[in-house]
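Board notes, transcribed. Complex of a protein with adenosine-5'-triphosphate.
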Amino acid sequence: MLELQNILKSFTGADGRHDVVNNVSLSVGKGDIYGIIGASGAGKSTLLRTINLLERPDSGEVWLEGVDLTKLGKRELRLARGQIGMIFQHFHLIENRTVYDNISFPLEIAGVPKKERRERILESLAIVDLQDKVLVYPAKLSGGQKQRIAIARALVARPKLLLCDEPTSALDPDTTGQILRFLQDINRKLHITIVIVSHEMEVVGSICSKVSLMERGVIAETLDLAERKQHEPKSQIAKLLFNHGQEAKEVDYAYGLLRAND
Ligand SMILES: Nc1ncnc2c1ncn2[C@@H]1O[C@H](COP(=O)(O)OP(=O)(O)OP(=O)(O)O)[C@@H](O)[C@H]1O
């Protein structure tokens, strides 16, 4: 349902040009939960943000259900983006709006009438099981509740694809498990395809069907976790992460272990 073809994105800083995403191609099937893991600075978030063109690639194509988003005009792109929801590490809720008004926001922008907005907001809140927080302001919510409201806001436009940028990095282990279960439920019950960027093995290992390991702007290796026997990890880092035991739960830490053993 999603094909990235030869995505290139570079940034120019004081020390010159950096190819942060360097000719990446990948394919996400309908109904997949697809993980992208990598060390800090590997280019994961930038790659994720090219999918909905929050970050426009310098070159390459982003095909969503047979349409190349990079070729669309402003109006068509706005409509196509309605099929893609997104959640972030730090939730990005609007502090001076209630939960109800936060979830309403994307529908207001899309010009959805008030009565339909109400139905869809309540439907979204029911999915994340937080109907009792409808009139509360974000400051009164726990981190896990904030992320659930952010999920409800992402779902209210009824997307086909949900992008998750480090969705549990700001949460404790119990809340992480709860959010991952919500994401898995959403994938199974609402048939929403999910792409998750993370540096935690627990996240990708527990719910992803496929995982790409990103290193310095390129996809080093892709593993099909559903077909583990046919696809054993090849690189040292992938072996450490995927055949780990408890000690290599976090990608930067796993690289540290490799360096220490050099
Ligand atoms: N808008 C920007 N302008 C300049 N440099 C940027 C910009 N966005 C990202 N970068 C740089 O690109 C590199 C990759 O960043 P990115 O956030 O994609 O990595 P990441 O793998 O998601 O890392 P992290 O897990 O630390 O967020 C970093 O060196 C970052 O400083």
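Residues 11, 20, 38, 40-46, 199 surround adenosine-5'-triphosphate (CB under 6 Å). The chain has two domains: 2-83+159-226, 97-158.
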